Amino acid sequence: MRRSLLQSFFVSFFLLQFSIVNAQEDLIPADSASFHSFLFLQEEIPNLSFRYFLPDTEDTASFSKQLGWSQTDSGLVSLPITDLAIAKVVEQNFIEMRVGYEVQYLVFSEVLSFGATREYVANLVNSSEFLVRTEEVTPSEDIVSLASYAHYTPLEKFKLRFISDFKLLIVTIIIVFFFVVALSMIAFMLVMKARKNRKEHLLKEYDRLIVDPLTSLLFEKELQEIFDLDQVSLNDYFPASMISKPIFREVLIERIIGLNKKMKGDFKEKLKALYRKLALDKQSIKSLTSRKWAQVAMGLVQINEMDLVEALPKVKAHTNSSNFHIRSLAVATVLNLSEKVDLAFLRDQTYPLSLWQQMNYLRIIRFVSHQKKLNLETLFQSSNPSIRIFGYRLVKTLGRVDLIEILSTLAENVSIVEKIEILEIYGALGAHMEVGFVNQCLSSENPTLILAAAKTAAVIGNTESIELLIELILLETNPRNKQVLMKSLHDLDSQRFEQLFVLDEDLEMTQIKNHILDPLLQHV
Amino acid sequence: MYNFLFFFILEIFGWIFLALSFSVIVIYLILMVLSALEMRDYLRKNRFADYGDIITSPIAPGVSILAPAYNEGANIVQNAQSLLSLHYGKFEVILINDGSKDDTLEKLIQFFELEKTNYNYIPEIETKLVRGIYRSRNMSYRRLTVIDKENGGKADALNTGINVANLEILACIDVDCILSSESISRMVRPFMEETNRKVIAVGGVIGIANNCDVQDGTVTTYRVPESELGRFQVIEYFRAFLMGRMAWSRVNGLMLISGAFGFFRKDLVRAVGGYFPKTVGEDMELIVRMRRYMEEQKIPYRVGFVPDPLCWTEVPESDEILSRQRNRWIRGTIETLQLHQALKLNPKYGLMGMISYPFWSVFEKSAPILETLGVLYTLILLMIGDFSAVYFFSLLVMMYLLSLLVSSFSVLYEQISFNNYKDKKDLRRLIWMIITEPFMIHPKIVLWGLQGHYDFIKGKGGWGSMIRTGFKKAEDKKNLSPQTSTP
């Protein structure tokens, strides 16, 4: 479409140009008299001039001096006149003086006939080298006085080529832009690299300075002795001038935390005491108020590792932070340090809980569940679905059979995803008393829920479950789902499974059966 | 008249090239800034990540590693052993023998004591005929499944693996890749961190293993390759992974995850019909289709990227093999963009339609053509005497400096973030490569790209005319499969 439009545009443009040329040629008169007048009107035509011939008479003698006439055998011949306006004046004189004359057309100084001259002019017009003038231009007013009214505008608006050439200007702007940005980036990166190198050098240097005093403190002093150390004695190990340096403190904190992770018993206590003695705990707590999220996160890690229980109220304030990392670390710290974990702070979280967070919390909860009482059921009341699901997963992982009763009351009124989680708990904990719920789910309309229920039925199902499974198998059209259902039936009652499919000639059923019975595919 | 047209066209081309130069500079500077920010954030976040838990946590998702193998008899056993030794709790390794003509299958059967099973293969995604599925009675190899099938290409082999995979995440890799023992736990993290947006896929960095020391499945000493082509690819991979993909990842605009090392959500891959075996750019096509599916379903999603060096591969160091690879890449790009034309400048597809797709169309697909046109334009200007040395040299020097800047920054990123190439001699060689690459190697890459375009026009790759019209919807591939696959 667009192409054809373009084509027609060019064709019409070409035709228009052609018709303009023809119209110009038509303006040249065909008869000699009119052509002669036409030439006068043009005033000047390239390489065309007039020459006059006057036969020898008495009247013509006076012309010999005026126009540089030259004498020939039969009369006078004028010089070629290129300005046709002058030629017109000359001719008018001849007419007024009643002198007989003859006009000769000279083209490139060659005398041509009227026809040849006309053709020459026509060629000039056709090749657009000459534009035909159709009427005489007579200035109606004095040009000079007219010009005085017109404002002066230079022919080339911008004499400075640099500005007048748009492309050059744009290229220059691009180059300047490129260099400014590139140089800033290079400078930034070089500064970064230099800072990093300097910091790495300092870290190494400070680490070397820290190792010896830290080792001697840990191995030479008892816990009580560390508690009793005064500032002067501490300065013998770690000079005040060094402690005041942020990077030195950073290295010291990292060293102490690193050792705390690796060591056990008394050494851990010594490290924690030293941490407080060196006032590093204040720095950790202070970093919780930082505007940089990485700083806050680092503070949370330090508080968690060094058991800075006094910072818990401030840590709790971060448990619903909009920053994923701060939120995760704050919850982990509260779980770890709180004496009594009622999990209400977790229940009230509004942000969805990721698997990554669940994994970290699970590790801590597993660890603290032996020491503290955890009210897991609190999580079931959360308005945040991901928190409720996490609660169900905790029940399953921690093996909290005592909470099945509560789950049983909730199970029927929760979402499909939560029902699936509850079914998994029933399966994992062998909650045979909940088989009714499992069978209810097997009768559901939701295929995902049916498959989850079938997997649970494989563990805790009853005769009703068997019948439901058989019914579902016969109705199921999706081969993958059918395989899950048949596997459940096999796990629940292998005899019934064998009986049911012993004579089955359905190729699909036979393939699934062979798959289920293959010992190499037990876990596939 | 014709003079006018000629000069008019020349003028238009002049402005187009000027606009292109400007946009190249602006876009690459933006990419550099975005990648720097993303790298900074990633390194900060990594300080607070403990990967130790993932290995044993019951909450961590399971990973099915899919590795197609074709005539890999020489190294298949070592490669399989390396995959089986990865540090992760819940994973399976599915090796797909794609109709190898050598002894790949026999070696696997013999070494891993494999036996043919009664596996009920369900071709949810249509594939070539599966001849057998093997497993071992030896519990040490309980994670291993070997599929023997008729040859159908990499995409078809991966589709077979997808049909067999049992776990939630698919790790599609090249069997000859060297994976770090931590690779799964690192790559799984973005999936586990999702909250409001579903993470549909995660891409990783591919390192170049040529001339490096490898021990226990990990590159222990980095050295740049001996050949110029090898060193060029080191720079190119830095640019592509540490700069390009990091930047696109920041704005969630990633349209490509390397086929050698990519992780995908299985349910979604199955929902869109798996890999498209009729294209040579199956890795890019799958990501585009998955993203398109999510946009059409209006589900918030994200494509993640992990910049840690976790996977290494040997790159081609000869002109012949590299030209074939580049030819294939450009054809894959053209095919994918052609198949998903519906995305082009379509606001319905958000950033992918309005920015990623046009970027790929202009700066990746059309780059060889545009560069060649630029050279021709300059020659024409020279011939007609309308050549401006000021424009030409300004633009040329600027583009050269841009190339130096981008390449140097990508090396600098690597140095700041990972600092793997520690030998000063290696760094000097890389810097020399950065300086000479635009003149020595780049023209070859352009030429191979042009050949790719030519081969695409010729129809190399065996596309049917119907497929050229593109998918109307992301899941349309499923409807096409029965018509396009060979029986």
Detailed description of the structure:
The complex is a heterodimer of chains A (524) and B (487). Chain A has 524 residues and is mostly helical. Chain A is 65% helix and 4% strand. Chain A has a 5-stranded antiparallel β-sheet. In chain A, a hairpin with a 2-residue loop joins strand 4 (102-107) and strand 5 (110-112). Chain B contains 17 helices and 12 strands. Chain B is globular, with a radius of gyration of 23 Å. Mean pLDDT of chain B is 91; it is low at 462-467 and 481-487. Chain B has a 10-stranded mixed β-sheet, with helices on both faces. A two-stranded antiparallel sheet of chain B has the order 9-10. Chain B has 487 residues and is an alpha/beta fold. Chain B has a domain at 27-48 and 177-364 and 462-484.
Fraction of residues in β-strands of chain A = under 5%
Largest sheet of chain B: 10 strands, mixed
Shape of chain A: elongated
Number of strands of chain A: 5
SSE run of chain B: HHEHEHEEEHEEHEEEHEHHEHHHHHHHH
Cα distance spanning the termini of chain A: 59 Å
Low-confidence stretches of chain B: 462-467, 481-487
Query: Rg of chain B to the nearest angstrom?
Result: 23 Å
Q: In which range does the helix fraction of chain A lie? A: 55-70%
Largest protein interface, residues of each chain = A-B, 56 and 57 residues
Number of strands of chain B: 12
